[in-house]
Write the structure tokens for this entry.
Amino acid sequence: MGELGVDHFLFLSAALFIIGMMGVLTRRNLLIIFMCVELMTNAVNLSLVAFGWGLNSLDGQAFAVFIVAVAAAEAAVGLAIIMALSRRQRTVDVDALRSLRD
Amino acid sequence: MPVETQTLGENWLVVGLMLVSAFSMGMLLLTLNKIMAPSKPSAAKAAPYESGMPDIEPVRPSYSPRFYVVAMLFVIFDIEAIFIFPWAVIFDELGTYGFVEMVSFIGLLFVGYIYAWKKGALEWV
Amino acid sequence: MPLDLNLETPDLWLALPQFIVFGLAIALLFGDAFVARTRHFVWLTGLSLVGYLAALVALVGQANENATTFYGLFRADGLTVFLSVIILSAAVLTVMVSASYVERLEGRMPIGEFYVLLAFSVLGAMLVAAAGDLVMVFVGIELSSLATYVLAAFAKRRLTSVEGALKYFLLGIFASAILAYGMAWVYGVTGSTDLDAIARSLAASVGGDEFLDPALLLGLLLLTVGLGFKMAAVPFHFWTPDAYDGAPTPVTAFMSVVPKAAAFAATVRIFVQALGPLRDEWVTLLSVLALLTMAFGNIVAISQRNVKRMLAYSSIAHTGYMLVGLAAYQATGGTGFGAGAGDGDQGVSSLLYYILAYNFMNIGAFAVVTWLQHRGRGLTLDDFGGLATTHPLAAAAMAVFMVSLMGVPPLIGFYAKYYVILAAIDADLLWLAVAVVVLSAVSAFYYLRLVAVMYFNEPEGQPRQADTRLLDVGIAGMVIATIALGLFSTPIIDLADKWESALTVAGQVAGR
């Protein structure tokens, strides 16, 4: 494994994905959770581009472009919902989300 | 240097191990950070930095929602440019069909723009 | 890198119904922006209904197609048509249920925006049903979900609506990231994002006594988790009760059907069409999920006093029954329910029939809840007390939907479960078939309790008068569908059997 190969990128993307996932599961601030999901999404993009490079096909890059666009739309919708919440309730802490209960 | 598909196929077996090690790597870094970083929170430290002055009003002043609306519109319209970029790179090879496709794509963006405009999202009051 | 540019103009006519819904969305955008606010209610409601009905008519043109266009991204086949019929009829019903609610309750919400978002969500779900490529599946699911997140937060003055939407949103994008990662691994292993090409590549490499590629298993697992979140299968269901409870009731009706139909469409497209050669692996995963989902949904629903939450858990339980249908998938080229052997596989046919049945009875149940909200009643079980005395027709409609959800003959819900059970027995999954029967019996407890409350308790308070003509028509239509489609289930299941024309291309090439 002397030179840079696909595996290195896959390893990096897997590590990023898991760091993002841990963040989603452990963090309490909505915006940070949101950023962690973005990290996971970008890890996916990295592995798609790496796969595309390894397989010598452009499909992976094309897929990654679509995911970037979707992530931007997610960001817009998500920030709008978070804004609507922080106007009702002056906090962005997950633990404050308790008005709905069984 | 593109890796041959053959070698790639052989490497798949490693992937399971890779994921385990990626997981432990991620966890290791997070845990090391937890252990090694000194953690002595105090009220003064938690306070936001205000050039040495004690803060006199709530830290997060409420910005006008206009800022957020404009930021959101910017993100959306900005990101759409990534579809134009690959198109521009091979513009010559795409011919008329590619041109028509891009015109209809930009036309749809324009519809969104008109909507935002008409709805008053671009007005700065 | 050499580019293989194949730029024939796609066959646009093949995607006519999808284009009609897209055109509808754009027309609604302009209508929202340029038509005077006072006319929105009549004009835009009418436009939506006409648009969806036109798309339903246009689906006839796709009926016997089996073709791809847009370079393999778009497929028109039996599965596309059947799922699109379900999604479009859910859209029509949602418009009927929501019009008066959005206009009058919860402080006059902007109805134009509501219809635009609804149209985009419907379009996304239809695109998933017609997807021929992983990219298309992903983009379709996201288009559908993003619009639904906003719809869930539509009553933005009410904290619970925003909170439920936020939970839905956060877990939804989390699931999307996992789903995309699974797709990335499948692409990495098979070298293609085209569903048929993936099936071909796997058919060539999988088989014999060799061990499965761990990367493939990882991809499969990630896809299962991602889709499990989207379809609200246990243990990925956390968002469901809160999101359903918080959202405005007509949106809940929509959310419980269309995104679920989209998730199942994606599952059939990916698992059956592309990962068919891995059947043995994912069937095990899905049958475990199915059992957990059924059991959890039904048991927790018993303890709910809030009718919307009860229906939320009931919808989780129904996800479980649908998963049983999918877990009973055997192989392409199997025997369907109909006379024509070599039609679709029983498992997938029963799943399709189940989604159709669930569409009418579940939107119906939420429609009656909406109807009562118009008349000033709340959402708890006690608010349904004495409904049979004050509003006998509404009580009768609700009773029909409850009994159908429970699965009593001759209503549509019974036939849905019947076909699922037949498929499970045929696939040697006797334990799952038994679980469906036992848990349906458990579900009788909470469905019949609601019926009992309506018929035997005393009414409280004075009902308010309200004029909800469109909603009344919608409820009547759903009652008729729930009864009639059960009585005439044979032609529908025959139609559902045709789904497999989707897979003949891949099957032939792969030599299966």
About this structure: Residues 5-36 of chain B form the longest helix (32 residues). The domain at 5-44+58-118 of chain B is CATH 1.20.58 (Methane Monooxygenase Hydroxylase; Chain G, domain 1). Residues 1-12 of chain B have pLDDT under 50 and may be disordered. Chain B has one domain: 5-44+58-118.
